[in-house]
Design goal:
Blueprint: H1 10-35, H2 47-60, H3 62-65, H4 69-84
Helix pairs in contact: 1-4, 2-4
Length: about 110
C-alpha cells in the first residue's frame, strides 16, 4: 500500500477551507430546519427536498453558488445519514458544526524522517 503526503499550495488551502465553509453552512441550515420541527407540525424536509432548496439558495446567494454543488449536496447526504443513525449510533441528534481553526498551516508542517 502506497502512502502519499500532500502539501497543498496557499491557493489550494484557501479553496479547501472554502469548501469546508460551504459544507458547514449547508449542514447548519439542515440542523436549523430540523430543530424547528415539533409534534403536530408537518415533518421536516428530507434529503430530496433539501437538495431542491439548496438549488434555490444557490440561485439567490452568490457566495453559496461560488462553491461546489457536489460538496454541498454531500453535506446534506451526510446529515440525512446522521439523522437515520441517531438511534443506533448512540450519538443522538446531529448538532451544529463549528469552524475548525488550525494551529499551523498544513504546508508549513513538515515531518522529519
Amino acid at each position: 500500500m502506497a502512502r502519499f503526503r500532500l502539501y497543498p499550495t496557499g491557493g489550494q488551502v484557501r479553496q479547501m477551507l472554502l469548501h469546508c465553509a460551504h459544507a458547514r453552512y449547508v449542514w447548519n441550515l439542515a440542523v436549523e430546519q430540523h430543530a424547528h420541527w415539533r409534534k403536530g407540525r408537518r415533518s421536516a424536509p428530507g434529503f430530496v427536498e433539501q437538495c431542491r432548496q439548496l438549488t434555490e439558495a444557490r440561485r439567490a446567494n452568490e457566495w453559496l453558488a461560488a462553491g461546489n454543488a457536489d460538496v454541498q449536496q454531500q453535506a446534506l447526504k451526510d446529515f440525512a445519514k446522521a439523522k437515520q443513525a441517531r438511534f443506533t449510533s448512540g450519538f443522538g441528534e446531529p448538532t451544529w458544526r463549528r469552524k475548525f481553526v488550525p494551529t499551523a498551516s498544513p504546508s508549513t508542517t513538515a515531518t522529519a524522517r
